[in-house]
Amino acid sequence: MRCPCCSEKLYVECCEPFHLAKAIPKTAEQLMRSRYSAYVLHKVDYIVKTTIPAQQAKLDVVAITTWSEQTDWQGLRILKYKPISGVPQAKVEFEAYYQENGERKTHHEVSIFLKIQGQWYFKDPTV
Ligand SMILES: [Zn+2]
């Protein structure tokens, strides 16, 4: 199957190795994509463990699960990927598309990612 993150690659060659913990994303963009496909495939554990460790206990796992399962995901587009020079941080601007009550909606967000001990994490602005 094609990867849900819209990379045009096969899932096994794209986000699956990250979901199975066989590899870790090398860039914040890869992490962003793999988190989106985790939402599509309802891999909530992956959403949690790729959020910065200090925030993980504060995540509302029930809400994440509901959002993941009840959303009719339609696609992802990365608009801008910008590593921030000098610090282990990156910004990813993206749009995620979904369908709600027969209407196509867009979720637009600029996310911050941090690299901690060699691994990229999502910084949740709501926690
Ligand atoms: Zn992918």
Furnish the topology, listing elements before pairings:
Layout: H1 16-19, H2 28-40, H3 44-49, H4 53-56, H5 61-70, E1 72-84, E2 89-100, E3 103-116, E4 119-123
Antiparallel strand pairs: 1-2, 2-3, 3-4
This protein binds zinc ion.
Protein name: YchJ family protein
Organism: Pelistega suis
Pfam family, one: YchJ_M-like
Name given to the CATH architecture: Roll
CATH class: Alpha Beta
Largest sheet strand order? 1-2-3-4
| Helix proportion | 25-40%
Stated plainly, the CATH topology is called: Nuclear Transport Factor 2, Chain: A
- Mean pLDDT, rounded to whole units? 95
Kindly, what is the distance between the CA atoms of the first and last residues, rounded to a whole number of angstroms? 34 Å
List how many beta strands DSSP finds.
4
Class based on secondary structure composition and strand pairing? alpha+beta
What form results from the Cα inertia axes?
globular
Count of domain modules: 1
| Approximate strand percentage | 25-35%
The biggest beta sheet, please? 4 strands, antiparallel
Bound molecules: zinc ion
Short description:
Helices cover 29% and strands 35% of the residues.
Written description of the protein model:
By secondary structure, this protein is α+β, with helices and mostly antiparallel strands. It has one domain (11-123): Roll (Nuclear Transport Factor 2, Chain: A). It is 29% helix and 35% strand. The chain has 5 helices and 4 strands. It has helices at 16-19, 28-40, 44-49, 53-56, 61-70, and strands spanning 72-84, 89-100, 103-116, 119-123. A hairpin with a 2-residue loop joins β3 (103-116) and β4. The model has no long low-confidence stretch (mean pLDDT 95). Residues 3, 5, 7, 14-15, 33, 37 line the site of zinc ion (ZN).
